[in-house]
Write a structure and sequence with these properties.
The complex is a heterotetramer. By secondary structure, chain B is α+β, with helices and mostly antiparallel strands. Chain B has eight helices and 21 strands. Chain D has one domain: MetI-like (MetI-like fold, Orthogonal Bundle). Classes of the chains: A mainly alpha, B alpha+beta, C alpha/beta, D mainly alpha. Chain C: This is Probable sugar-binding periplasmic protein.
């Protein structure tokens, strides 16, 4: 028995190996069945949007919104993008799209830059009172925007930014700050403190450490923050409707105007094409970023 | 009479073979320790026995019953985990009785089993506390208690002491030994700590890469390791190995030094091939007494590591590092030249080609 | 819509060639986005562009309820537009008082507005402390019901000539699968219809007592109870009318799906765009055919104060233009509203407009709700009416009680 | 030996303080300053312009005497409680399903979460279309032969809030599911092993062991949903615009309409102050539980 490296074959009767599993066990049928039904429920609206947007109006009037399009036409898409009217402006959603892009780029860049520096200061350069301000900031994330809308109008007017792009960028920066600061603070806190100490011993200052040590190490969290902000700002409606003027309306506001204001007959196919077009940007980001998106919302949420 | 018997067990994770054609027989009342470095498959084997992992091929019998396809709870086992795995929202009593309640054990029966387990483990005062209010040691006692109340013959321990600090670990180790002596259950215990293995086990199975390297009593494993891996793994500080050959029958030769193997017990008689000559540091004798040993030589102390009870001296033989464990009171200092000697009968010699004991 | 767009682009292009460097961009906000309305706005734009300036259209969809907040917050927010539509009346009161609006008294005096604007009440609504701050551009009267000839023909009954006949024919319409009364879901529509029924059933005196003098007792009184009963009856007639926007409801009348719709004279534009002829395809009854009267609400343009003198000049230019004879004619024909001056030839106007002009000339006029009630009170009444309209469990008596409470609080 | 002077306290970490200025300004000016400003003005009779013309609690009295506001609150309470219950339950159940070591887990998760990337406007509009009785679900079911079938939540004042709930849940449950899934994955695998050894069926393990262990996750999810609910605005605007009638009004819309449409700022401020209070009612106990317990000084 001394050497039992045991490659001898032993005689076996009865069950051996893995318990045979039926692929169609009741448990599996239940799990996959429920998941399939759920998946259908979640996919249905997307499907309906796509199907409707590819139909002509006669087909819509006759038919079934769940039926696949028979005569596929891209006319509604063209119309939604470049011809749909709000009032006298019949430039379609394209105007809103470019407005959104114009709002998006500086808002995302500035809000992330400021929040990351804030988070960095909070994580590594604690000063007296910092936590107090931070606590207020986090509480601020829960204050209903409605209570701050009007003073913000006055504030922007006094700064001369009302109705201007800069004003909306400021609003997005301010209201995006709590969650982003939290995100960055938590991330920087999780980095090894020795690194920061070593850099200080090496004589690097506040900005030096930020740009040369922290920034290069934090690319993932910047990506997460970007996903969070791009979807958030793109999907914003309230600020867009209050703090911009009609020719600068972001896509969501313009979409609502196009769909909910009618000239004669409602063109459901154009409406759905417009709705899809507005949803495309966040959807693309979502599908492309996959796990990072999940990580972003989970980090922003669970750690709160 | 076997308690647990494992026959030709295979376990694959995808294309990775974690356990390979493994056979193991464990007697009733035996304390078997599965020992090995992390990733050797020892915990995997334990999980297979518990039924927490589905085996790919082979059989598992517990108490002469083929349980290969049985649910964990029907295998007649109890298990204790490294992270204790207590149900945090229940009291100690709740933790002990939850499984029993679920199995619809009568209420007074539950009471008496819980009381007995609590008494054995001396956790009566803790019964109404929640796990969060317990120390690590207390938690692990509760976890053992949870296995105890199941009234089973086989206990499985998955590195139960690894989350505890050194002192508690030593205390609880003794406790487990006492428990085994009292209950006489079969215990299968996974650890990477050789002290635990040596102190607790009736037999130790040393595992590497999904294979059992050696299954033997602790003494046998210590004295007569079957291969270089086992020899190196067991013992602290680990065994010295001198690189040489046995081209002259009955003699080991490394560089200019020749050691007469004298009373060494060969497995199949001496071979004329390159070998490793293994010798445990604690079996070396230094100073005047060394001259009385079959082999002795003069060496220089290169590094001296005093550890209180004893001192580890680093030296070299034929430019190969050689450690010597000497008494803590010995007065060897760095740079000192001293005499060492040993009896080659206590050595372990391994064929350099297959690293098996010769 | 497309042709309209081309037209605008074309005119803009011509102007930019002819006028070149003198062009001042003037952004004009309004909420005229339906087909007929947009065509009317284009008349303003065309005329303004012809002066060498540039009309920047700032249409805000969703009706006055959506657009007004945008307009006001922009004025308050220090980002004023060049000119903006507002219903004249009390909506802009505070903006004027806060000194945010351009004083138009000089051009009004110069153009003799006091003499040409008819009825003069319109100009009074633009006047604060003796100064004029807005240009009334049209008269819109709520007091109409629009009837579909097709619907009544399908139901095999004659087109009614008053409200009573209309309610009497409802059963026949229902039997023919029609909705007797089309009504959009937006609150201002049900509230407007209430005002119309109020005048038609209760008479002008009662209306004045309540809306002008804020007599809560009258609002709670038995005469008003009759109005609420009639209003409740109208609610029953509109069952099955699920559309949101007023022009969708009008469309139900145009297609013959619905028998009629109580809506202001702006509905006229929709019939026109649909190529229908008054008296042939549809009939309009002022004052529900009971009490022929015209309310003289309407739209006015305000010109927020601006630091740029060039903009101010352009603003005054536009103000003069809007009240000028040719623009008034062109605009109002498209819009389906009545012109604000009595001295122009509206002979090309259709049947319904002619009726309106006659009533106007006869002086059967009343002020509009917006002129006598604050936005706040109007809003409260709107909320009440739309709730009543949609919540069939609310009895007319309950609604009346709530109504009286609002009037008692009104300022 | 050089004497190093102790730097002025204010200037210590000066760069950090400068860097934190935007945060400090936001916290003080926007979150505190604006809030206080609005609360103060809610006691005035500001109409179109904010004026410090105090009228005591008159705005609040009117608020609670206004049917539309009461409807809004009722809707909010109903929508809030339903979406809390449903999204926590559905979110958790879906997370449990995905936690069963299933194939295509990523695909399913992606499908269930994607609506969360969409704006409420898009969500509202697509569900407006699906629930359209002329073309949508009602029409389909009728064409299958059930000619009396009625499903027109967006046009029926009694059930319109369900129509909004369906859309809201469609958009938001995926998010809750992801949080729950993260929570489930955070549970020590050995707990599962222990319960299998104890022979506890997995549904029982979920109820008696896992859910109690996930209490913090549930609380976080609850606070997030609750804070989101109070802000519900876009969805209603896009889907029903408050209709039919006022049946689907919500407080956020009441505030907006009062401020900008009815030109009654004071009333809007009072309503938004009540919104703030309702958030604090949720937030303060949570913050107390979450932070108060651990740090006694906060």
């Amino acid at each position: 028995m001394t050497n039992s490296s045991s490659n001898t074959t032993v005689e076996m009767t009865g069950p051996r190996g893995a318990k045979p599993k039926r692929a169609l066990s009741p448990r599996n049928i239940m799990i996959y069945g429920v998941l399939l039904v759920v998946a259908c429920y979640y996919l249905l609206p997307l499907y309906v949007m796509i199907a409707t947007s590819l139909k002509g109006m006669p087909e819509i009037r006759l038919g079934n919104i769940f039926a696949p399009p028979v005569d596929i036409t891209f006319e509604p898409w063209v119309k939604a993008w470049s011809q749909a009217c709000t009032g006298l402006n019949c430039e379609g959603l394209s105007r809103g799209f470019w407005n959104s892009v114009r709002i998006l780029i500086p808002s995302v860049a500035i809000s992330i830059l400021i929040a990351s520096v804030n988070g960095y200061a909070l994580a590594n350069w604690k000063f007296k009172g910092a936590e107090v301000f931070f606590t207020i900031l986090i509480f601020g994330a829960f204050i209903p925007y409605q209570i701050m809308i009007y003073p913000m109008v006055i504030f922007l007017r006094e700064l001369g930014l009302f109705g201007k792009l800069g004003g909306l960028v400021l609003v997005h920066t301010v209201f995006g700050m709590p969650i982003l600061t939290l995100l960055f603070r938590n991330y920087f806190t999780s980095l090894p403190e020795e690194l920061f100490k070593a850099a200080r011993v090496d004589g690097a200052g506040f900005w030096g450490i930020y740009f040369r040590i922290m920034l290069p190490m934090s690319i993932p969290i910047f990506v997460v923050a970007m996903i969070l902000q791009v979807t958030g700002i793109w999907n914003d409606f309230l600020f867009g409707v209050i703090y911009t003027k009609p020719d600068a309306y972001p896509m969501t506001v313009q979409l609502n105007n196009i769909v909910n204001s009618v000239q004669g007959v409602k063109e459901y196919n154009v409406n759905m094409a417009a709705t899809l077009l507005t949803g495309v940007v966040p959807l693309v980001i979502y599908f492309a970023s996959g796990k990072l998106f999940v990580r972003g919302i989970a980090a922003g949420a669970v750690k709160g | 009479m076997t308690s647990v018997s494992i026959k030709n067990l295979d376990l694959n994770f995808g294309s990775v073979k974690v356990l390979k054609q493994l056979n193991l027989e464990i007697d009733h009342g035996e304390f078997l320790v599965l020992l090995g470095a992390s990733g050797c498959g020892k915990s995997t084997l334990l999980n297979c026995i518990a039924g927490l992992l589905e085996v790919s091929d082979g059989q598992i019998h517990i108490n002469d019953k083929n349980v290969t396809w049985e649910e964990p709870s029907d295998r007649g086992i109890g298990m204790v985990f490294q992270s204790y795995a207590l149900y945090p929202q229940m009291t100690v009593k709740g933790n002990l009785s939850f499984g029993l309640k679920n199995a619809r054990v009568p209420k007074d029966e539950i009471e008496s089993r819980v009381a007995r387990a609590a008494e054995i483990l001396q956790i009566e005062p803790l019964l109404h506390r929640k796990p969060a209010a317990l120390s690590g040691g207390q938690r692990q006692r509760v976890a053992i208690g949870r296995a105890l109340v199941r009234d089973v013959d086989v206990f499985l321990f998955d590195e139960p002491l690894s989350n505890l600090d050194a002192k508690l670990r030593a205390d609880l180790r003794v406790e487990i030994k006492r428990l085994h002596q009292k209950l006489h259950n079969t215990m299968i215990y996974v650890t990477h700590d050789q002290v635990e293995a040596m102190t607790l086990a009736d037999r130790i199975a040393i595992m590497k890469e999904g294979l059992i390297q050696q299954l033997d009593s602790p003494a046998e494993i210590y004295n007569r390791p079957v291969n270089k891996y086992v020899a190196d793994f067991i013992g602290s500080p680990s065994m010295n190995f001198l690189d040489g050959d046995m081209s002259t029958k009955g003699k080991f030769k490394t560089g200019g030094t020749e050691i007469d193997l004298g009373n060494y017990e060969f497995v199949d008689g001496p071979i004329g091939a390159p070998v490793w000559f293994g010798f445990r540091p604690e079996h070396v004798i230094v100073g005047e007494a060394a001259t009385s040993q079959p082999f002795s030589t003069k060496v220089v102390a290169e590094i001296v590591e005093p550890m209180g009870s004893d001192t580890l001296v680093w030296t070299s033989i034929e430019n190969q590092p050689f450690r010597v464990r000497v008494d803590g009171q010995a007065s060897i200092k760095t740079g000192d030249e001293f005499l060492l000697g040993f009896d080659p009968a206590r050595a372990s010699i391994f064929d350099k080609e297959n690293e098996l004991r010769v | 819509m497309n042709s309209l767009k081309k037209l605008l682009v074309a005119t803009t292009a011509i102007c930019s060639v002819t006028a070149g460097a003198f062009a001042t961009d003037l952004e004009v906000t309004h909420w005229w986005t339906s087909g007929g309305e947009a065509a009317a706005v284009a008349e303003f734009a065309k005329a303004f562009n012809a002066t060498g300036n540039n009309w920047v259209d700032g249409a805000i969809a969703g009706g006055g309820g959506v657009a007004r907040p945008v307009i006001i917050s922009r004025i308050l927010g220090g980002d004023p537009m060049g000119a903006t539509q507002l219903n004249h009346g009390r909506q802009a009161e505070e903006l004027v008082e806060a000194g945010l609006m351009l004083d138009l008294t000089d051009i009004a005096t110069e153009g003799g507005w006091r003499d040409i604007v008819n009825p003069t009440g319109l100009l009074d609504s633009c006047t604060v402390d003796g100064k004029i701050y807005c240009v009334p551009v049209n008269i819109h009267s709520w007091q109409w019901i629009w009837l579909s000839h097709k619907a009544f023909a399908d139901a095999g009954v004659d087109v009614p000539s008053n409200w009573d006949e209309f309610t009497a024919s409802a059963d026949a319409l229902v039997a023919a699968g029609k909705t007797p009364l089309a009504m959009g879901q937006q609150s201002w529509q049900s509230s407007g219809a209430f005002g119309v029924i109020n005048v038609a059933i209760g008479g002008l005196d009662l209306w004045t007592k309540i809306n002008v003098n804020k007599d809560a007792e009258a609002a709670a009184g038995p005469e008003m109870a009759k109005v609420f009963e009639a209003y409740g009856a109208a609610r029953v007639l509109s069952e099955g009318s699920n559309v949101q926007d007023w022009n969708q409801a009008t469309n139900m009348v145009i297609t013959g799906e619905a028998g009629g719709q109580i809506m202001g004279d702006w509905a006229q534009g929709e019939f026109q765009v649909a190529g229908q002829t008054a008296g042939v395809d549809y009939t309009c009854l002022p004052g529900l055919g009971v009490n022929e009267i015209i309310s003289t609400g309407g739209d006015a343009f305000y010109f927020p104060k601006n630091d740029d003198p060039e903009v101010t000049a352009a603003q005054k230019e536009l103000a003069k233009l809007m009240i000028s004879k040719p623009v008034q004619v062109a605009f109002n024909l498209k819009k389906g509203s009545l012109p604000v001056r009595g001295d122009i030839d509206m002979s090309t106007a259709n049947d319904c407009m002619q009726k309106g002009l006659e009533i106007l000339a006869a002086g059967n006029i009343m002020p509009d709700g917006n002129q006598v009630l604050s936005a706040d009170t109007s809003g409260q009444i709107e909320d009440l009416m739309v709730e009543f309209w949609n919540d069939t469990s609310m009895t007319p008596a309950e609604a009346q009680a709530a109504y009286a409470a609002i009037i008692a609080e009104a300022d | 030996m050089a004497q190093s002077t102790r730097p002025n306290r204010l200037f210590r970490n000066l760069n950090a303080k400068i860097a934190a200025l935007p945060m400090i300004a936001t916290a003080l000016v926007v979150f505190i300053g604006f809030t206080v400003w609005t609360i103060v003005h809610s006691f005035t009779k500001s109409k179109l312009l904010p004026k410090l013309d105090f009228v005591g609690f008159a705005q609040y009295e009117r608020l609670w005497g206004t049917r539309r506001w009461l409807v809004s609150i009722e809707n909010l309470a109903f929508y809030g409680i339903s979406s809390l219950v449903f999204s926590l339950t559905i979110g958790f159940l879906l997370a449990c399903l995905l936690d069963q070591k299933i194939r295509f887990e990523n695909t399913f998760r992606t499908i269930i979460l994607y609506p969360f990337a969409l704006s409420f406007i898009v969500t509202g509009l697509v569900w407006q279309w699906i629930l359209n009785p002329e073309f949508g679900v009602q029409n389909i079911v009728r064409s299958l032969g059930f000619s009396e079938f009625v499903f027109d939540p967006l046009y029926n004042a009694d059930v319109v809030i369900f129509g909004i709930l369906i859309a809201g849940l469609w958009q938001g449950t995926g998010f809750i599911m992801v949080i729950m899934l993260a929570g489930l994955r955070g549970i020590d695998q050995e707990i599962w092993k222990a319960s299998r050894i104890d022979g506890i069926p997995s549904w029982k393990t979920y109820i008696f062991v896992v859910i109690p262990m996930m209490r913090p996750v549930f609380i976080t999810a609850l606070v997030l949903i609750a804070a989101g609910i109070v802000k519900v605005y876009d969805l209603v605007v896009a889907q029903t615009n408050g209709g039919p009638g006022n049946a689907s009004e919500v407080p956020a819309k009441y505030v907006y309409d009062m401020m900008f449409k009815n030109q009654n700022l004071g009333q809007g401020f009072a309503a938004s102050t009540v919104m703030l209070l309702s958030v604090l009612v949720i937030l303060i106990p949570w913050a107390y539980l979450e932070f108060g317990g651990r740090k006694g000084d906060k």
